[in-house]
Amino acid sequence: MPSVHNEVYLHLVWATWDRLPLLSPMRRERAFEEMVRKAGARRCSIVAINGMEDHVHILLHLATTSSIADLVHDLKGASSWLLNQDSEGEFRWQGGYGVFPVAPQALERVTDYIQKQEEHHREHTLNRLLEL
Fold first, then answer.
1. pLDDT band at 67, cuts 50/70/90?
2. Residue 121: pLDDT band by 50, 70, 90 thresholds?
3. 94 in helix, strand or coil?
4. Which of 20, 23, 52, 100 ranks highest by number of CB atoms within 10 Å?
5. Can you tell me the mean pLDDT for 48-54?
6. Residue 10 forms beta bridges with which residues?
7. 58, 75 contact by CB (below 8 A)
């Protein structure tokens, strides 16, 4: 049987409904755990996951048997369902998402970017304030 060589990595990004700050640290942790579980069930593996109160970033290895649209639908749906079970109020993701291919040589750089979201946003906010 022929083998398949697969080096398809994707950087996925999507936001909460209206970019509302709905992802408290506890909610983020629960959502990320559910997304990792759901991705694994679809034979995809999450390399890095992080985000802020209003969006998430995911770097993953896409299984050859998964479509991007179906995978994102499942990740968003499962995490949204889970978060709507808690007492923090209604939760919704925005309808769309961004998807960007990542070369294997760029995995470390993209992983670092995702893992340092808080720092990135803090610096971005500071730079915007200095421009005023």
1. very high
2. low
3. coil
4. 23
5. 96
6. 60, 101
7. yes
Rounded to 5 degrees, φ, ψ at 116 are: -105, 35
Contact between residue 13 and residue 57 where contact means Cβ atoms under 8 Å apart: yes
Of 122, 91, 118, the residue nearest 20 (C-alpha) = 91
The confidence score (pLDDT) of residue 4 equals: 85
How far apart are the C-alpha atoms of 93 and 83, rounded to whole Å?
11
Report the C-alpha gap between 47 and 32 in whole angstroms: 12
Kindly give the interhelix angle for 25-41 and 68-83, rounded to the nearest 10 degrees: 140
Half-sphere exposure of 54 (CA within 13 A, CB side): 6
d(CA 73, CA 85): 19
DSSP bridge pairs for 60: 10, 46
Backbone angles phi, psi at 102, to 5 degrees: -125, 125
